[in-house]
Amino acid sequence: MFRESLELATSSLKHRKISSALTVLGIVIGITAILSLLSVGEGLQRTVEDQLNAVGNDKIIVSSGSNVFSSFSGEGLVEDDIDMVDDVYGTETVVGILYKTVPMSYRKDNLIGRVVGVRTKDAKKMFDELNVFEVDNGRYFEDGEKGVAVVGKTAAEKLFEREISVGDSVFIMGERFKVLGILKSSANAQRDNSIIIPLEQLRTMTDTKDSLTVMFVKVSDVNAVEDIAEDIEEELDDRYGEGYYQASTSQQIADSAGSIIDLLSFVLGGIASIALVVAGFGIANTMFTAVMERTKEIGIMKAIGATNYDVMEIFLIESSLLGFFGGVLGCVLGFVISEVITVFAGSVIPVSFRAVVSIDMIILALSFSVVVGMISGIWPARRAAKLQPVDALRR
Question: Is the pTM of this model over 0.70?
Answer without folding.
Answer: no
